[in-house]
Amino acid sequence: MDFEEKKKNVRISVGKNIKKYRELKHLTKAEFATELSKISNKKIARSSVTSWENGTYSPDLALIHYIAQILDTDINNIVESNFTTDNHNFVRNQVVLTDNEGIRYTFLLDNEQFEAVKQNLIDISKNTFEVKNA
After folding, report:
1. Which bin fits 45, alpha (ψ -120 to 50), beta or left (φ > 0)?
2. How many Å from the N-terminal Cα to the C-terminal Cα in the chain?
3. pLDDT higher than threshold 50 for residue 73
4. Contacts of residue 97, Cβ cutoff 8 Å, sequence gap at least 6
5. Which residues does 89 contact at the CB level (< 8 Å), separation at least 6?
6. How many Å apart are CA 55 and CA 123, to the nearest integer?
7. Half-sphere CA count of 25, side-chain side, radius 13 A
8. If pLDDT is split at 50, 70 and 90, which confidence band does 26 have?
9. What is the pTM of this model?
């Protein structure tokens, strides 16, 4: 794969990620463009969002932080692409924790790590529930 093809694949991946998280937030392209314009102090058109999502263009690097902020996700989730090596697909699971002060911590875990965290959280919630009802 040559350099231009790699760039194209990155554009497509970033675009798909933006679309996925935008749709999860139930934002139209126009609403997303308006929000992005407000917090970035740059005029962003709905057509720009369309160009990003279809992989024609990538958003300016300076906008990635704002995009992640609006879409309530980590920057890595916007710029990351699925990758394959040695015929193994690496799947990442996202765990987001928010502390009492509202600070968010995002963790990308492989399947084994994710299952361990999930089981620990289930165990903790069972213990908390049992203590409160005792």
Report:
1. beta
2. 62
3. yes
4. 104, 105, 107
5. 82
6. 43
7. 19
8. very high
9. 0.61
| Furthest CA-CA distance within the chain | 64
Helical (H) or strand (E) element with 12: helix 3-24
Tell me if 23 sits within 8 A of 71, measured CB to CB. Answer: no
* Model confidence at 130: pLDDT above 60: no
Q: Is the pLDDT of residue 83 over 50?
A: no
> Which of 15, 5, 3, 4 has its CA nearest to residue 81?
15
The tokens 């203590």 sit on which residue?
A: 131
> When comparing pLDDT for 41 and 109, which is higher?
41
**Cβ-contact 33, 44 below 8 angstroms:** yes
The DSSP line for 53-97 is HTTSS---GGGHHHHHHHTTS-HHHHH----EETTEEPP-EEEEE
Q: Which two tokens stand for residue 52?
A: 């990003």
Distances from the Cα of 96 to the Cα of 34, 55, 73, angstroms: 26, 27, 9
Tally of CB atoms within 10 A around 24: 11
